Amino acid sequence: MADKKVIMEVEHLSKEFIIKSRRLFEKNKKLYALSDISFQIYEGETLGIIGESGCGKSTLGRCLVRLHKPSGGTIRYDEQDIWSLSDQEQMKIRRNLQMIFQDPYSSLDPRKTAAYSVEEAMRVHGLAKDGRERREKALSYLKEVGLDIQHMERYPHEFSGGQRQRVNIARALSMEPRMIVCDEPVSALDVSIQAQVINLFKKLQNQHRLTYVFISHDLGIIKYISDRIIIMYLGRIVETYTAEGIYKNPLHPYTQALLSAIPPESPFEKRRRVPLTGDIPSPIGERAECALAGRCSHCMERCRTEIPKLNNTGDQHLVACFLYQQEDYR
Amino acid sequence: MKDQDVILKVNNLKTYFYQASGVSRAVDGVSFTLKQGETMGIVGESGSGKSVASSSIIRLLPAKTGRIVEGEILFGGKNLMSMSERELSRIRGDECCMIFQNPMTSLDPVFKIGYQMVEMIRGHQKISKEDAWKRAVGALEQVGIAEADKRMEAYPHELSGGMCQRVIIAMAVCGHPRLLIADEPTTALDVTVQAQVLELLKEVQKKLNTAILLITHNMGVVWDICDTVMVMYAGKTVEYAAVGNLYEEPLHPYTWGLLDSMPKLGSSSKEALVTIPGTPPDLRLTGQCCNFYNRCPYAVDICRESVPPLVEAAAEHFVACHRQNGRAVLSRGEAGRDGR
Amino acid sequence: MGETRQEDLLGSEANMAMLLKERKANSAWNKLKRNKTAVIGFVIVVFMAAAAIFAPLLAPYAPNAINPGIPFKGIGYQGHLLGTDDLGRDILSRMIYGARVSLLVAVGATLVGAGIGVLAGLIAGYCGGWLDTVLMRIMDGMFSFPFILLAMILITVLGNGIVNVIVAIGIANVPGFARVTRGQVIVVKEEEYCNACRVVGVSHAGLLFAHILPNCVSQIIVYGTLRIASAIISEASLSFLGLGIALPTASWGSILRVGRECLTTAPHVAGVAGIVVLVTVIGFNLLGDGIRDVMDPKMKQ
């Protein structure tokens, strides 16, 4: 992995949202969606990001495609800071960084046909000589995702969920991107359709040499499709490693709890639950302790006063937990 | 099967929706029995009719367009189809409770939790406000909510999704629930919270000997807490068996497709996932033949001519397939990947 | 061959057929037909519009033809179906020609109001910030100004006449359209497909006019239909006060004005005009409600 090209680099990314106070004389509160996020994305890989609600994975995905402006830190694409670009360079980057959203219905304009949505993308970037070529190209992309000519003039509400998602994918493909951020792209689909769409993602990745950032809450899907996985909790990265590695040897207590909470794959399986007491704490307000403090059964004194940083425990298996930062570990 | 054990018996339930463009056969002949203390899972994808079936059982359908056209629903021996709305409302919330998918929207956002619980309890039992309050606090403690009396003063939006679902289960527990219908109770919740809520349901069942009808699209949840499972497709039951039997020897081609298309955590294979080609049929076109024939790799002529009946193929293992036809003729995996 | 071609009941042809059937059943026309009150409203509106358009063919007499010998004659008198007014003019003919004026003014004023108001609402809603605040405070100011006073000032400055009345009522309509549009824009611009367009790289103008505006249009049309109804009343009020269409031009408002003066002696003048205005306004209101139901894409029957 060391000789693979780095396509995107995220350094100390943070994102806060201001929650306007409803009461008089009360200061506005800050919601810390992302704190101190740093990682790299290698060309051609699929990076999986998994976490539960409030972990910030969606916000992270949107920061990567320039939908949210970060409050701190930098995001570099091909070694260029994506927020300090001229207008022309911005458009070029937009072509290369695309996104597939979670809800296939609301991500298409209900008043535009499938063909329009795909052609618009090409029109914006000047990717076809004239209307006729645009139309032909749109048809070819729709066919590539498994639709056909009779789907071109249909409106979103006339498609099934899986078909709508295919239209979204065709639209993203039509710009010939290098990286696609997929924000829970199959969560809203039926199980048997999920498999179809995931197969499509893989096929397209091979054919077009795409890099994926795949966000999901479903570990089965993430493990299947990803090369490496990042586990997030309350706006921070808690663990990152290869997909196989995380499953076989989860180190962070949160990862262990997450894996043990997954419903069994057969009625005869007896899974040992690693319990996490209580609920996910609120992301509002600053905290100077480990995000899992109070819920974790290994909680120590140090966990309540310091925030653990990501630490390499060997072979690029990074964990942010004081359990693995003691001098006598390893 | 001792008859006094059976709490719910559904016979040939059919619920249709009448639209301008045609009749949508959302539920087209569903039959099953549920015993006291048992958990049955109803599995299906969107359009399978599982949610409509559960709403039909307690007669909660959109009045204008949805109608139960046929079928018998026997709850503890009483026929729910012939009951008046008044009698039904006495049963709902007391003996038969329903838990919906989105816990945040199941509670009234403008009233405190305590108020809603007390109102519910007093709606079914003649007790004073103080006694109802105490019962409610007790129920909240039963479902594992800490500082229950403080929580009674909270509004629904102040609680997390998992908490809300616990509150709803607590409300169900306040009555004398003999049947709990849970329609995708954990789909909107995080995985760790889901595990907690499912465990809670199991506890409640053990303590009160309640029967649970669990509707879900997640097979993992079925393996976790269900005893029997019914697979639905396009409004019909396609397979019905004990959970262990369904896992080891599923008989219907749709069940095979469903089970095979889920990525397995244990396997490291990166081969393409097995899929069922095509999409579920439009419910206005179904009802004349096997609804699965256009996606089934084993389909033959008879499949597109007549509706396959639900037949007992093995001990307490029912399947609706012309080719399986009670004799488990086909073997799984015969058709290979991608149904070809 | 000997092969019996069996019907592919669930195949793609059947699906296509069902799609076309659904499209037809849910077309705007069919949806409207199913709503009884909307049909009533539609009929009323069409009736009034037809009267206005075909006035020369329908009116039995010239609207301004004075007949001083038969003033204030009652309903059904000698071929005057609805009687005559103070100068012996046939009320039926004046009502029919009056429909022309009143509807022209009402529709014209609504279009003027919509043209300016929608643009202002689009900009305010999309841009937000100080531009939004400034525009909306201007609109608030216009709202709080009493309409009649506003119209009086404008008519005094511009003078009587159809065009000026249209402008006066139109300007009074601007803040309403601005508010409705702005409210819709604020909701629509946060929809996921707008985010998708931003990621694709669609420009601000492209997003606003190609995506946001079409998705707000249905609300604007509904609002517009209701504003036409109220514009009819506005015109009638203005003409009634002498600020609108001047006599002898026939408009429903000017007829009402005459009718008021002879209310005790010849009540049919005011009565007829009043009822016609009432019925037309109800018609537009019912139609507007019906259009709202039709335009809601989630309401499939």
State which percent range the strand residues of chain C make up: under 5%
Work out the strand percent of chain A: 15-25%
Q: Please give the CATH class of the domain at 6-87 and 96-110 and 181-193 and 207-324 in chain A.
A: Alpha Beta
The name CATH uses for the topology of the domain at 6-87 and 96-110 and 181-193 and 207-324 in chain A is Rossmann fold
CATH fold-level topology of chain C: MetI-like fold
**Overall pLDDT confidence of chain C:** 85
The low-confidence parts of chain C are 1-5
End-to-end C-alpha gap of chain A:
23 Å
Query: Mean pLDDT of chain A, nearest integer?
Result: 88
Secondary-structure arrangement, i.e. CATH architecture of chain C: Orthogonal Bundle
| Biggest interface found | A-B, 41 and 42 residues
Q: What is the global morphology of chain A?
A: globular
Characterize the largest beta sheet of chain A: strand count, sense, and whether it forms a barrel.
8 strands, mixed
CATH class of chain C: Mainly Alpha
| Helix-strand pattern of chain A | EEEHEEHEHHHEHEHEEHHEE
Count of domain modules of chain C: 1
Shape by Cα distribution of chain C: flat
Query: How many alpha or pi helices of chain A?
Result: 9
Strand and helix order of chain C: HHHHHHHHHHHH
Low-confidence stretches of chain A: none
Structure, explained:
The complex is a heterotrimer of chains A (330), B (340) and C (301). Chain A contains 9 helices and 12 strands. Chain A has a domain of 228 residues: 3-Layer(aba) Sandwich (Rossmann fold). The mean pLDDT of chain A is 88. Chain A is of the alpha/beta class and 330 residues long. Chain A has an 8-stranded mixed sheet, with helices on both faces. In chain B, 30% of the residues lie in helices and 24% in strands. In chain B, the strands form 2 sheets. An 8-stranded mixed sheet of chain B has the order 6-7-8-3-9-10-12-11, with helices on both faces. Chain B is globular and about 65 Å long. Chain C has 301 residues and is an all-alpha fold. Chain C has one domain: MetI-like (MetI-like fold, Orthogonal Bundle). Chain C is flat and about 75 Å long. The two termini of chain C are 45 Å apart. The chains are: A alpha/beta (330), B alpha/beta (340), C mainly alpha (301). Chains A and C meet through helix 2, strand 6 and helix 3 of A and helix 1, helix 9 and helix 10 of C.
